[in-house]
Amino acid sequence: LDLNTDDEKSIVEEVFTNAMGVLGEEDRKLPQVTAALPLLKRGIGIHHSGLLPVVKEIVEILFQEGLLKVLFATETFAMGLNMPAKTVIFTAMKKFDGEQTRFMSGGEYIQMSGRAGRRGLDDRGLTVVMIDEKIEPESAKEILRGQADPLKSTFRLSYNMVLNLYRAEDADPEYVISRSLAQFQADLALPTHQKKLAALQARRDAIALPAEEPRVKEYANLRRAAELLRRQIRDITHRANHVTPFLQPGRLARVRDEGEADDFGWGVIINFLKRSNVKKGADGEKYSVDILLCVEAGSSKDRPVPAKRGAAAESLEWRVVPCSLQMLDGISAIKLFVPNDIRALEKRAVVGKSVNEVCRRFPDGPPLLDPFEDLKVEDKDLKKIMRKVEVLDDRISGHPLPKLCEEGGIDLTDLLEAYNQRMQVDKEIKAIKHMVKVGQGIILKDELKKYTRVLRRLGFIDEENIIGQKGRTACEINTADELVVTELIFNGSFNELTPEVTVALLSCFVFDERNDEDINLPEKLKSPFNTLTEIAKNVATITLDCKLPVNVDEFVAKFQPNAMMVMYEWCMGKTFAQICTMTSMYEGSIIRCMRRLDELMRQLVAAAKSIGNAELEEKFKVGGSKLKRGVPFQASLYL
After folding, report:
1. What does DSSP say about strands 94-96 and 287-296: parallel, antiparallel, or unpaired?
2. What span, in angstroms and rounded, lies between the C-alpha atoms of 607 and 628?
3. DSSP-based three-state secondary structure for 467
4. How far apart are CA 296 and CA 550, in angstroms?
5. Which pLDDT band, with edges at 50, 70 and 90, does 155 fall under?
6. What is the spatial distance between Cα 581 and Cα 80, in angstroms, rounded to a whole number?
7. Are strands 70-73 and 44-47 parallel, antiparallel or unpaired?
8. Separation of alpha carbons 36 and 83, rounded Å
């Protein structure tokens, strides 16, 4: 595919060569640089956050000049007002927003599709949407004809903000909170939230429980606890080295997608394979198991819908669905005969009848493979967890609720479903009550008191809310977790470290991308990192003691050591090409981490200066100078 003329190719090459002239000879040999030119000359561009900044800027300049005819880009590029195109193509309707995969909003669609149509060149812009899965008409209408996303305040209290407010003589934190956009919007929404709260409470009261709620709650909690323990057992027993020898065609397996809350029930394994294009990560992501499952007829191939209980046979079909190991909820000792060719719907239905017959003969589920005799699991904790499950199962079987339901003619499954519905409504009520309290100005003031309590416990302010030396240091830091960094400084953790190790340790504060690489740190980096995790754990524990919602393990885990070795070797003088071979991180991700780290180093220089520690100030300066060199800090082509 070649979309450019010879004249356009020569212009692209000239622009590219001139832009690359600012790089060193070594950096001009980077894979991204050498691979970009052949594509650009053909009029094809790629733009995403993993690219080198200079390559991204060249793509942007060439696109603006009309020298790129096709551009594969992420949502970020579509936000550029001066980047119009004749046609915009959406390859999917869903996007990952950092927490979940969801349909794009109306505002996002308007913004991206708004790039279609070049002023003075096109009479109209063309937008093509590739529907890759089933979508409800209402959802599609909401996206295509929806309103722009409303402007919502993201105002959040932070320790840096609270400390700076306490440092200013005339500033009153409570007054600042009351005058914020967040509080104004909460005040405005208060009547709506109060109406919604009343409606939810009425809805909750309408869900009748034909048995005593305390008994239903106790029974449901026992079953939930047993299910959580069984999940732990599955996580241990369903590791690749244990289960892959048993994934033969014909073996029964139960499938449940917990991420989507879908229970597909029992199916038949057809095939399994190891994925060759998956980076290091969880075992379950490296293997794909093809399983014949009962799903709703006509549901999307990429997103099949599990069969509902009691659904009519004609509305269901047996289909081969690719699953990860993490979706396996149980592997049976039973194997069925499966024909070599099951492409015909009738043949799949015959196998499905065999599965249904096995489930009929075993009402409690087909027998599972023994984790010790069959799967050869040697995990020390497994037996303890299994004993806990046995204890819970005994309590569940001896619970009076099933007998009471039988005597009263009550369906236990329907009862538990009604209870779960009530619990879901209770959860919504709790969220709305929180919003009502925010509207009444209660929540943010309570949060301010808790933040102040944490700062007092750690010695950043005194009982009169006057900031001390620690507080003044933390006021200078806003790029990283100010509490943990300040604790490291006053704990003397940086005193014995070299500037290179200091930079490597501080990379844990700014590297926030998901990375599943196996990290094996040398002792000179491992010891400082262990100190960091201990201090982070102490800060999180104190935060929790002060009634602020925080998960201690998650708080500690956010300080990732993945970039430590890369930053250390960079500061020791290795080239950018050399450090890129040490990690699976994208070049753009490495550069983004370095630039954030450079900003943190400058803030730490100011923090050390504010407390009069000249030795530490010099160490941070030297570390910053070793970090700031080469292609990561190359000046922008726009300047």
Report:
1. unpaired
2. 19
3. strand
4. 41
5. confident
6. 33
7. parallel
8. 20
Question: What is the distance between the alpha carbons of residues 373 and 448, in angstroms, rounded to a whole number?
Answer: 56
The average pLDDT across 19-32 equals 86
Tokens of 221: 């909690």
Instruction: Write the pLDDT tens digit of every residue in 371-407.
Output: 888 888 888 888 899 899 999 989 998 998 888 888 8
CA 265 to chain centre: 27
Q: How far is CA 250 from CA 234, 370, 387, in A?
A: 21, 18, 31
> Can you state the angle between helices 159-167 and 443-457, rounded to 10 degrees?
80
Closest C-alpha to 575, from 559, 562, 587, 592: 587
Question: Rounded CA gap, 455 and 475, in Å?
Answer: 12
Task: Please report, to the nearest 10 degrees, the dihedral formed by the alpha carbons of residues 545, 546, 552, 555 taken in order.
Answer: -160
Q: How far apart are CA 370 and CA 367, in angstroms?
A: 9
Nearest to 562 by CA among 593, 524, 603, 604: 593
User: Is the entire prediction scored with pTM above 0.90?
Assistant: no
Q: What H or E segment, with its residue span, contains residue 256? A: strand 251-257
Q: How far apart are CA 547 and CA 531, in angstroms?
A: 25
Report pLDDT digits (tens) over 469-505.
999 999 999 999 999 999 999 999 999 999 999 999 9
CA distance linking residue 76 with residue 73, whole number of Å: 8
Neighbour count for residue 508 (Cβ, 10 Å): 24
CB distance 506 to 498 below 8 Å: no
- Residues 256, 329 contacting (CB under 8 angstroms): yes
Report how far residue 92's alpha carbon sits from residue 140's, in angstroms, rounded to the nearest whole number: 12
Q: What is the largest CA-CA distance in the chain?
A: 87
Using left for φ > 0, alpha for ψ between -120 and 50, and beta otherwise, residue 370 falls in beta
Inter-residue contact 601 to 585 (CB < 8 Å): no
Nearest to 358 by CA among 485, 268, 438, 247: 268
The pair phi, psi for residue 15, each rounded to 5°, is -60, -45
Separation CA 285–CA 260 (nearest Å):
16
pLDDT tens digits along 202-226: 998 888 877 778 888 899 999 899 8
Cβ atoms 468, 459 nearer than 8 A? yes
Is residue 166 within 8 A of residue 466, CB to CB? The reply is yes
Please return the burial class of 296, using the count of CB atoms within 10 Å of its CB with bins 0-12, 13-18 and 19+: middle
From CA 212, how far away is CA 207, in angstroms rounded?
A: 13
C-beta of residue 101 within 8 angstroms of C-beta of residue 68: no
**Integer Cα distance of 549 and 540 in angstroms:** 10
Burial, 488: exposed, middle or buried (Cβ in 10 Å; 0-12, 13-18, 19+)? buried
